Amino acid sequence: MFMHHITNQLSVKLIERQDADALYALIDANRDHLRQWLGWVDGATGPDVYRNEIIPAWLTDYANGNGFACGIYFEGELVGTIALHEINQTLRQTSIGYYLTGNGRGKGLMTTVVAFITDYCFATLQLNRVVIECAIDNTRSRKIPERLGFQQEGILRDAEKLYGVYHDVAVYAMLAQDWSTTLLSDQRVSYRSN
């Protein structure tokens, strides 16, 4: 099982089938907040779709070295998720997606988690490029790559359609060659000892 303690209070754990009820409860309790930026929220209709379809697909990706989805736990409570989407082995790149809810927001947790996962991408997976995409109006989400030294590479116009409305998307990226010289290098958390 993939689990890392980032701090005494903060950890990430691979999402497994037994996590379906807790994951669905988190989404259902925060539906209005999540729906603003995530197009899949209305399709989250119960824990069985996670247990029987979504989580097995995530676990297959993890087993094949093609990304993963982890729960974010603060003081033992599931407060969000972070995922590495498809890993392009030819280009040695991936993208990170994330969300945080309720008790997890406003504490700098996601910045710490994204720093940890980015470090994992470069140090352990030996990737060359990590991408984060955020709707341009999602200022909270955009602050995370900006704080960590990701470079904004551009704006994709009308790249996302949420509930009938198009949104522009900001694209941020960090390269392995930039990684050691950014703010991220000051925020690294050692996962090798966990």
- Give the overall silhouette: globular
Which architecture per CATH? Answer: 3-Layer(aba) Sandwich
Fraction of residues in helix? 25-40%
Runs with pLDDT <50, length 5+? 188-194
Total tally of structural domains: 1
List keywords for this structure.
194 residues; 8 strands; 8-stranded mixed sheet; alpha+beta; globular; Aminopeptidase
Structural summary, described in words:
This protein has 194 residues and is α+β, with helices and mostly antiparallel strands. The chain has one domain (3-187): Aminopeptidase (3-Layer(aba) Sandwich), CATH 3.40.630. 33% of the residues lie in helices and 31% in strands. It has an 8-stranded mixed sheet, sandwiched between helices. The radius of gyration is 16 Å and the shape is globular.
In short:
Helices cover 33% and strands 31% of the residues. It has helices spanning 20-29, 31-35, 47-63, 109-123, 139-147, 176-179, 184-187, and strands spanning 3-5, 10-14, 68-74, 77-84, 93-100, 129-135, 151-162, 165-175.
Chain-wise SSE layout:
Blueprint: E1 3-5, E2 10-14, H1 20-29, H2 31-35, H3 47-63, E3 68-74, E4 77-84, E5 93-100, H4 109-123, E6 129-135, H5 139-147, E7 151-162, E8 165-175, H6 176-179, H7 184-187
Parallel strand pairs: 5-6
Antiparallel strand pairs: 1-2, 2-3, 3-4, 4-5, 6-8, 7-8
Helix pairs in contact: 1-3
